[in-house]
Fold these 4 entries.
Entry 1:
Amino acid sequence: MEDAVLARRAMARQRRGRWLAHAALALGVLVFAFPIWITLVGSTHDAATIGRGDVPLLPGSHALENFATAWGEGGGRTHTTPAAGMLLNSAIMALLIAGGKIAISLLSAYAVVFFRFPLRMAAFWTIFITLMLPVEVRIIPTYQVIVNLDLFNSFTGLTLPLIASATATLLFRQFFLTIPDEYVEAAQIDGAGPLRFFRDILLPLSVTNIAALGVILFIYGWNQYLWPLLIINDRSMETIVVGLAKMIGSGDTQNEWNTIMATAVLAMAPPVLVVVVLQRWFIKGLTETEK
Amino acid sequence: MDRKVIFKGRALPMLLLLPQLAVTLVFFIWPAAMAVWQSLLQQDAFGLSTEFVGLDNFAEVVADPAWRGAAANTAVFASSVAVLALGVALFLAVQADKAIRGQRFYRTMLIWPYAVAPAISAVLWLFLFHPSIGLIGRALNAAGVMWDYQLNGNQAMLLVIIASAWKQVSYNFIFFLAGLQGIPKSVLEAAAIDGARPLRRFWTVVFPLLSPTTFFLLVVNLVYAFFDTFGVIHALTRGGPGKATETLIYKVYVDGVDNLNLGSSAAQSVLLMLFVIALTMVQFRFVERRVHY
């Protein structure tokens, strides 16, 4: 009798808890989406409306012209670069960084796991140390290396220093260690050399890991800020994240905010779409690279 | 851990390692060594002569009130970002774990800020908190709060903290939710049968079981707040007003790139390097232990 009362009470409490949970989550989602919503709305109004500070909560009718201006001409009083070019530059940068990191990490993990040679562990630790040297703590000397190698204002200078990857190497190493010995033996019996084995067996087995890592690294590449800020001062090579921040300048009220907001939407759309559409790979990549 | 069955050959693996090692040596090890070397040198104002000054640059940096100010800012900034991003993420993850339906929807809606660049996150929050065009900025002023992050240092700090934490919640949320879902239901049921109320159950059973995740995330959040938030500060406040939001990493940039004070900038870099090395060691030691556990 008493048990039944307790059980019913517990159930009611659980149901109430679930409702509260949904309410809290809905509130959280709203708070998280709010800045994006305001930016989206802002990108559909004219400059005067925003400049007056009367940003409405609902979209206006100027979306087409704002995005056309942002795409083809750019906005901002001191810095105008069309978003189309900046998007292309960002895409090149992100793909080169993601592709480069994956390629050289696959090769080095393969060498470390499937061969024995002098200084193998020394090489491994050298790569590992890069984890502890983020670009932010060696800004000036790395910049000097780029200048000395004449790589200033070039995609090589922009991407090459960022493609060393301890995280990716560690991830592939871990995965390669789980590949059954029988695969290697079978390949050796069939007379397949190490490169054949890599191409025909190891690469196909690694597709899932490559995809998961690719998503994370694409976002990493797209969102670079400090390095492009230092290495690129040619307007035609500007990336969109840095270009957007330059448009804002010191945040003057007279800025062409409508065009800037449209540019902001364009700047975050590609990585956000990648995360939402490729969510499964994204979560796999995130949880596996950080362990 | 090594493989038993391997390929023969020495030249091939070395060739395969070459690209990664070359990039690492040229762009990581060499510049890091240069930073250490430069931190021991002093250049005169015209860059004509340099002399070896030992640890003088370090002594100067550590005694400099501007550096100490930046260190204090960094401490306030990094701890606030970590606490805010971890607290909000844990709260939302607990709610998502409770809500049986719609979990995927909530997850999708909460994870995408991860994809937004720190500098863009700064821009989004500027649109909201700008004193004359921002919705919230204007509302605050209308309500009698003198809101202008371009003039008030505390308000500027608050804004860079919010913009930085907002983005990091997504990351923490994913890990907390995974951690919560890894707790065996039987443990929770046992606590429920013992009559523990939900809040008590959370603090005595769930939270301790989550502590490895929390600790790991704390380290990740601190590293994020120290290094990855350069874009937020550069896009939003440029370290100002005055030096109110100048963090250590921002000061390295300003001293090295704008003021061209290489010795000091290098010494500051080396101090930050030591900090990252310490954090990474702590993290790896801890992760190792968790594996054995």
Entry 2:
Amino acid sequence: MQSLTNISLKTIVKKQVKWKAKLYISALSSLVILQIIFGILLSSSGSTSGYGRGNLSVKFSIYSLDMFLIVSAFWAFIVAILFTTKAYRIDDLSVISSRTSSAIANIFVMIIYSFIAVIIMISTFYLKVLEILLAEKQSFIIENLFISPSILLLCFSSICLFGAIGLLLGTSFKGPTLIKVPIILLLLIFISLVSINLNSLMMLPNLIISVIYLFVSVLCFCLTIWIADKSEVSRK
Amino acid sequence: MKATFFLFFMPLLLVAAIFLLLSKLSKKIKIWTPERIMIGITSYLVLGLTAFLYISFFAESKIQALSPSEMKQLEKKLEQIQKYDLENDSSYLTEDYKKKTWALKYEGDTLPVIVNGDDSGSNYIIRMRYKDNIDSGQAIVTYYQLPVIIDGIDLSDKIPLPNVYMEHNELFIESLSEQQVNYDRIKPTLSILDFNRDVEQEPYAMDYPYSNVLIIDIPRSTVLEDSQGLVQYIR
């Protein structure tokens, strides 16, 4: 007896997201290891500022979220590219999938992982604070212990953006040449535009920056799905 | 070029290497099952939460950073002090700011003052005041330390005191060697954003010239000799 059940894209994506989130869990453990290496063991402080006042020189070692965010963003970019590599595409064969459904599932996994990455990042930050507290009790200044929601949103959107760029880049590499070249050019133009206007971008409120980042991420995700859809016919 | 490589490409390579290694390990060695990895990550998050709870309940910073409103109030106060000094009025030097007093003896009616230091006296504001209740042949030098605010922290206690002494009937004022103070500041924000935004907002340091004041109290019969031109009269 043959089954002719037509499974909807939504069902396939749902199943794939569940399956992939579990399968790629080592990505998160690699983030934990990286955060420990860069955030706790290697980094002395995020930044330092020094002042001289007569015969007194003061050095402030500022421990902020910068290093943790940079590590997470790099991680998201690399992991997203790796998700689109052949080794991971072979895993897609284990479940019913198409390139489109696989791309959508990857996007959802990336979003979930970005959210978890923010929590891992915060966890590492507090562990670092505890380390400083135990080591430098006398010269310890807590300006604020709570991370503001706007900063959390900004961290999430930044990680998401890097993940989205990684997915787009990885997907466009396996797409048709007609799509590959314009996408890479578009990415280069976007990166150069951001670099030129970096100062004015940083002057904007956190919420606005987050909205811009999320908007660009959605744009990258949409392009990823579109490229995956176009690559469907050329599947080998 | 080498620095760029280490800063940019090394982390990228390390991320990829660790991720690939863990992926391979989780497939080959059965110890790294998804469930166990999940338990490991959850434990790490719980550890972070415990650290947060410990810091919020048991950690108390001995150094308090001033709020912007407190800094503005202090700034106004210090501006007033400047006005007093320009009018040669010493009434702003209250007991609260007094740090140390030296009672010194000399012979004769002249007291030469020599200020030694890397940049000759720029560390201190030195003022001379006549006092009726001081015996002849005696000088009282008082050091006043006014607030020194850097990055919202009052560092007045960290400023090294000058070395004041008499030698060959001359009063010597020496600034001590440079002192380095290190602080660890916990700021759960993004420094790169704060740094760029603060440039256009409030100043970080209140670098005020009237922070370290030395007052030399002498009897009216004494003439203070100041060849360096660093000592001014104050009422």
Entry 3:
Amino acid sequence: MAFLTTSSEEYDVVVVGAGAGGGGSVHVLTDLGLKVCLLEAGPMLDPAKEFKEHKWFYDYGHRGADKGGAGYFGDGKPYGFMTTTSGGWELPGEPYTMGEGTQFKWFRSRIVGGRTNHYGRMSFRFSQLDFKCKDIDGLGDNWPIDYDEISPYYDKAEKFIGVTGTKEGIPSAPDGIFETPPQPKVHELLAREAGKKLGIPFIANRRAVITSNKNGRAACHYCGQCGRGCLTASAYAASQVEVFPALETGRLKLITDAMCREVSVDSSGKPDGVIYIDRNTRLEHKVRAKAVVLAASSCESARILLNSKSKHHPNGLANSSGQVGRNLMDTVGFGLSGYVPALEGMPKYDTDGFGGSHLYAPWWGYNDHQKLGFPRGYHIEFGGGFGMPGPGSYHGVARKAGYGTAIKQLAREEYGAGVGFAGRGEMIPNEMSYCEIDPNVVDQWGIPVLKFHFQWTDHEWKQARHMERTFTEIIETMGGKVRGLANAAREADGISVPGSIIHEVGTARMGDNPKTSVLNKYCQAWDAKNLFVVDGASFVSNPDKNPTLTISAFAWRAAEYLVEEAKKGNV
Amino acid sequence: MSELTQIQPAVSRREALRRIAATVFAAGVAAEMNPADAQHVHAAAASLKGALGEYERKELSEHEWKTVTRMAELIMPADSGGGSAVDAGAVEFIDLLCSGGEPLAYIFHGGLSWTDAEMRQRHSKDFVDCSEAQQKALFDDFVAVERATDKRIAASGVGPYARFQDYQAWDRSDLGAGVGFFDWMRKLAVDAYYTSPIGIKDLGYVGNGAFSSYEVPRKAIDYAMKRSPFKS
């Protein structure tokens, strides 16, 4: 039977979650001299053991199809055998439920570094247009800050993490402090030419990859395998870039396999630590701390707050506004693939590059919304080139060719001539999309689980149709033909399944008004001055820009603010 | 068989990778990749035969093994660009996967039995004992069913929104089970081929390296631009 033991030591801060927000927090907090305890629900990461960088598929008898060909049945590792994803869409013994009519996918990564070990590293600053979105179209809410307030923290995050890019002066995509980006690949140059004709700007991609040596991290060596985890830490991961160095300061205590259940409060209702369950022993422990920073991922942090019920906080902690769990947003996703004859038979070259596309198109239609018929925008990511062949790469070719040498001939002919475009767009928060505690279900640790409710609205559907038209135009302007959905199994209905882009944010939003928001503009809870939420939960809106860089910037600012306020005796 | 059944990499390759890691981890120094090391990684990695070693049959019967071998040869035969799927380890690959789980094992045991039954009905012989012309005639029938299915999907106007199930709704129920199995056989033969050093060389994939800078060759850019609508 589990019972509670309390740490004898009181930490300055306990941080829950070792991903982008938690990694950034412990980096800054230990740097400023604080004694910090970091809880991670998964195990320690050992890059040398876990990362499959530079492996070939034939290094494994199953060639990447996984045991029993699990990958062929959709039961393999999410995003393929070689990725370093830890966790996935379903975790054994840790269910989540859905309301009627809801389809929602929740990707949880339980390991030091979390999803940053394998994510796409796209790193785009939000702009003033994003922070004051309601002023433009009357939808959703404005953020309680201006771009100029957060810009210095984007600077700090970019300087520390390392982000590629070029200065472009595009209002929807503010420039930053950039690493030199790699040269565009051939299919990207063709897309850029098509973009010129269509009025779509393709510019150097902004990814959290260093192309020069930095803080003991080596410059990118262009194997293009960031998703497998980067042994040289050239691609940013919170584990390698923030948590491991913070451990070396001697001011950080890391507790792994620690499943946080709730934030505990003292007799006055003030947070005084967190209670977690050790996954190995199933015993319950309490870590005492003067301040609590939640960075467990947007929905997991909301879950912890909602489960932190006490007589002072009957509806959960920091939830006097009733907004915890509300305003759940994901990114609108849609993909289309095409075939470009101009690329057929091109001299072979190494297209691995720095992983992901070397160019991307930031949203260009910010002045055209009257005409477009949908609010907000999307950016375009795309792929192509002579990729490493893997399981499944040539099933389509084989079906088309039948059998015999015809398969080989067609594969040679088409190699490198395929392209795929993906849109990543902004959703407007709506009342039908939220998460709450399911009163009837607990996970194997006895912690009540989340129940999701989610609906796309016309805004998102119209945007996805615009993506489809745009990608068709780009492919055709390149002299190519549309082939089909880039990922038919997932996006067969013309829009991504909610949650599947893994940009879920908004469940403890910040604001100017304690009645309608959970946090103030420093990610500090209105209801408890020593409680901060520094993952995507704080987001007021979910611009088309992937959330991680903004999580890093806000976490950095929150950590500095916490220390300043503590010095003044205000926490 | 352990879950990952990792093949022992050649020591020389491991050493090369160790040297890469040592170079890039050396704090503060420029991560200059010795081009000889990069080359070495490619060369060492390309020796699958040595890496595979002796394989022991696990799941398929001797007869099934022979049948799969013959089918893989027909599906991906050797040509001027490289060896066959069998040379690329397709039979070992299929046997190993079948030994690792029920769905595939049932698909192959069942599919192979169906094929022999069909061939005995047609020619009073098992598949492997039939002539090449007879074997190919069966595959031609399968492909004809697939083509008719694809044609129907194209005509239906669903375009890119066709679903996986649509492609599996064969137009001839009497051959349906065989077509479904043939598709599996082909998928696995093709995967074995293109994930092998033979298939990688055939396609001309030149990546998975480590370099201190990234460059796109001028001749590749010129080639595509000249053939594109942007040639002017």
Entry 4:
Amino acid sequence: MPEMKGFSEISKEDKERLSLTGINTESMEGRAGSFLLVNDHILHAGSNTDNVEILMIETALQKYDWLKNYMWNNVPADKDQYTKYVAEHPQRGYVIIAHKGAKTTFPLQSCMFLQGDSIQTVHNIVIAEEGSEVHLIAGCASSLKTKEGAHYGINEIYVGKNAKVTSTMIHTWGEGIEVFPRTTTTVEEGGTFLSNYVCMRPTKMVQMYPTAYLKGEGAVARFSSVIVANTGSYIDAGSRAVLQAPNTSAELTTRAITNGGTIISRGAIIAEVPKTKGHIECRGLILKDGIMHAIPEIDGRVVDVELSHEAAVGKIARDEIEYLMARGLSEDEATATIIRGFLDIKIEGLPDSLQKQIENAIDSADHGF
Amino acid sequence: MLEIDNLHVEVGELEILHGISLIIPDGQTHVLLGPNGSGKTTLLRTIMGFGSSKVTAGKIIFNGVDVTKKPIDERARLGMGIMFQRPPTVSGLKLGKFIYAAKNIDEERIPELAEKMHMTEFLNRDVNAGFSGGEIKRSEILQLLVQNPSFVMLDEPESGVDVENMALLGKAAASLLEKDVHMKIRSKSGLIITHTGYILDYLEADVGYVLIDGYLRCTGNPREILKSVKESGYKECMACRK
């Protein structure tokens, strides 16, 4: 098993913050591979799984000539000011290649850590070849000492024929950090893409709208988001699926709580061909005056598509709190229990270890409601 | 156990209960009858302390403690327990987790009680989500068995329940109320709302009341009251000013 490098340079407190994002900083146990980026320095990249490679992007480009065709292909370099900024700077990030038929039992962890006040740029590419299966956990965090900074991240994910990629991103940024991930995924015939996003900690701004293009027959995409926005946080997080082949389907699920912050929860499913299905579900709670703005969009363009959406914004039901209190729970315990339950999304097809990681992130953040 | 004195209760600024007084001694089970909308559920909810019931006058004394202004959880910790007629669904909260959080008995006994109430496979489901009428009742009784209150309130335990479930619920309710313990040393008490009286096939009640339009109209032997109501409805009770 390769040794973990790089984490020794991170303080104990910051390691604790990283562990909140699901990153194992002590050993590679329970991880199929690992990647650590601190500011603009790659401190560790390595896989301990056969047929799955984690490479630094520059190394990967030297090793595989064909990789250039995947670069800036899903996400155009001139898409917006953030992609342009990343394109103008040296490319740093990882390339994960799951070769044909490779399957990882444990997740591959990648960690983007921001120390000091700066703009961190990342460009990651994930290629899951035919029949492969990989689980990624991306922990993004900033040091407690970092007051201001930004993270621009490009993610291009290619899910091959009958391949499966699950990507779980847990954000633990700081109150002065602005984050602009730009993620696009393409899914080929029979492929599955599960994307999970958890953001429960104060962050100045998150703005993202990851998109999956379901290009091959029978491809599936599911996006699940759990978002809590405290006062001072502005989180504009959406997810979009474009159904471009028959028998493709998409589900977008969001649970969002504003505790004084702003949440713009976008969701869009565009059905371009017949025999496609999609559903958007967004449920929001307002615990303290803030903004919870749900914008679900369904866009069907041909006969024989089934698209639906439901969105609800409200408060914690008093009768549920009283029900729990009648069994002896205090009002605070009852409230926390209901919130915890509200945020609990069961994600079909997610490995237990990742489901547990999401639950841990929720448990660690529900104090103080 | 429980003493209610001249209780006046408003729900949404409308007075529903007009001066209710009753005493339930240790070890006794009392039964509350009355037509729909007479205030029976409001009385139970007021005893438990739910926010929608506002006490404007009178007192509720529980084991010598004035609980009239105490919050629900404190009453629960003092030993009150209630079976809800229509409990809310709590999404994301597993019944098993809820039960363990509310337990006042040895943890080892929980699986056996869940099995007894045929609820083992429901422990991994969200509380009340998609439960049928009978399943809700079994879940409620299981919660009470685990909470182990000294004063048990049951709101229409037989409504929406088939014959087989009725026997199961009736026996479990009897055990909640320690009906297997000799009355001289029995300490648990209860107040049960019933329309049909089926629950009385499984447990003996000591006193019955008829509640009409927010007034207790009649107090007496529960079986006699039930018989009279079954024969001539609540008309006589309405006329009765006793």
